[in-house]
Amino acid sequence: MKLRIIAFLFLCVFGNTFAQTPEWGEKFDFDPKNELEPKFVLTDNYNYYLLTVVNKYGMMSSNQIILRKFDQKNALMETITHPFPVLEGGGTLHNFLGSYAIGTEKAVVFTQSYSGKSKRDEVYQHVFDKTSKKFTSTMLMGFPIVSNSKSGDVKVKQSQNGAFFVVNYKAANSKKEPEVNNLMVLNSTTLDVAWKKEVTFANEFFTANLVATNSGKVVLVRQPYGYKLDNYLVAVSETEQTDLKVGESIKIHEPVAISIGTQDYLLAMNYPSKGVRRGDFGDLMLYDLSSGTILQNNKIDGFNSVTKIEEVNFRTILMQNNEIAIFAEAKVDATPKPTPGSTGFPVEKHTFGPSYLITLNFEGILKSIKPIPVSTTGEADLYHSFGLVNAKGDLFVQTGLENGFFKWNYLFNNEKLAHSIIFGYYDDINSTRKVTYVNQLVHYFPDTQKFLFAKITTTDKTQMSMGTFTSIK
User: Fold this and answer.
1) 70, 77 in Cβ contact below 8 A?
2) Residue 150 burial (CB < 10 Å; 0-12/13-18/19+)?
3) Which pLDDT does position 8 carry in this prediction?
4) Most distant CA pair in the chain: distance in Å?
5) For residues 347 and 291, what is the distance between their CA atoms, to the nearest angstrom?
6) Are residues 263 and 239 in contact, defined by beta-carbon separation less than 8 angstroms?
7) Closest-CA residue to 153 (of 136, 141, 165)
8) Which DSSP category does 7 fall into?
9) CB 309 within 8 A of CB 286
């Protein structure tokens, strides 16, 4: 209550800065547990769409893409659904592989469908075209399998500059069998195949993850089955395949590929595989793919202070003024401990945060680490701890009810934060309802100078609504 009063007084004192009437559309039913990776797509001055995917099984099974269309006043106009493919013979299972915007006219969703009854495993792309208002599904790859347990491991990644997609189908294999990776690189604008290649390995390693570079290459991260060997990288192009050492006694997490000029580099959290370590997220390297060397490996304080941390995700990477600005967010296992005397296990729970802005120079040397004042109630996987949006060159951070929506004035300097909107004033939360902002759902319309937000209201049912605020002056 005290915080609400402070927020109200703050708004009254700075009324000229914050006085604006938010325009919220009507609430609509939303399933926060099963609607995956919501994102705004196909945005223009007249309409925008919310894209989600449902992939659940059981009595109320549903495997489909959901696309909701909104007008300028944030009213829901139309809901379009598209089912995942069903293979001949039935018993089809699915994996959601990712969704992406393709400009302002198209969006694409990647899925895997497999069935032990049909003995098939297939990878699809589903493209929605705003002009035709239809989805078109195309099979990218298809392979025979002997059972559901022998289906392939499929990953889809987009390059940091958005120019390429890489699709990798890793066939099921035992430790004694060769590992076969079927790589396909797509032009992300046309979705035409840029190149494809089969890459086979027969050693004591497995492909843990991969990344697409801005130049259209693929880098595979090879992890050992045991603990005595170090991981290594394999850089693959249409015509070449090169093994690259990472460094002695270093294990890396999933990297992100960036470019400095025309050269490709990797950013990766890592940890020493031998000796005493503080945790698994205490180091950040900049790796030169052309020379196969670590330019710098920096000690990073902050993440390892949190117990049971599972991931550190690089949500946004900006390159400016000879600096690399990394907005990084942790994912933490927050599953409660079993209650003494209870039967069964507690429901698994994860949260997002802490989060930091990590700044390196182009040589990879650490310049600063600054905590992002984020939401502390970011329950994964829907509620990220923050969202970012660029508005005419200024960067704004969305943290919802926790710290509001503010301009990031110290992105490349030491100025203090400038608060812009305190959301708690508008939501008037009480004991009969709960409001939670979906922080990553934030967009800026440059022509109308409005910011778009999304929030979820929970009463006896769960609903989402969209709202716009005028530009912050």
Assistant:
1) yes
2) middle
3) 40
4) 70
5) 46
6) no
7) 141
8) H
9) no
Distance from CA of residue 444 to its chain's centroid?
Answer: 19
Helix (H) or strand (E) holding 13: helix 2-13
Structure tokens at 324: 């690399």
What residues have CB less than 8 Å from 307, skipping those under 6 apart? none
Q: How far is CA 292 from the centre of its chain?
A: 27
Nearest to 85 by CA among 52, 113, 123: 113
> Mapping DSSP to helix (H, G, I), strand (E, B) and coil, where does residue 16 land?
helix
Distance CA 325, CA 308 (A): 26
Phi, psi (rounded to 5 degrees) for 383: -95, 90
- CA dist 97 and 154 (Å) reads 8
∠ CA 192-198-201, nearest 5°, is 150
> Residue 44: which of 337, 394, 446 has the closest Cα?
446
- Tokens 């003995």 belong to 119
457, 24 Cβ separation under 8 angstroms = no
Q: Are strands 28-29 and 462-470 parallel, antiparallel or unpaired?
A: antiparallel
Of the candidates 15, 80, 22, 87, the residue with the CA atom closest to the CA atom of residue 53: 80
Cα 292 to Cα 201, 206, 245: the distances in Å are 20, 20, 7
Residue pointed to by tokens 């990879």? 364
Distance from the first to the final alpha carbon of the chain: 29
Instruction: Return the SS3 of 148.
Output: helix
Count of Cβ atoms closer than 10 Å to residue 276 Cβ? 5
Nearest by Cα to 439 from 283, 316, 267: 316
Does residue 17 contact residue 39 with C-beta atoms inside 8 Å?
A: no
Residues in the chain with pLDDT values less than 70: 1-21, 59, 276, 375-377, 409-419, 425-431, 471-473
Residue 261, SS3 per DSSP:
coil
Tokens (6 digits) for 22: 């938010």
Q: What is the pTM of this model?
A: 0.92
Burial 334-369 (b: 16+ CB within 10 A, else e): eeeeeeeeeeeeeeeebbbbbbbbbbbeeebebeeb
Residues 6+ apart with CB under 8 A from 275: 249
Q: Give the span between the Cα atoms of 465 and 459, in whole angstroms.
A: 14
Return d(Cα 251, Cα 224) in angstroms, integer: 10
Alpha-carbon distance of 147 to 366, in angstroms, equals 49
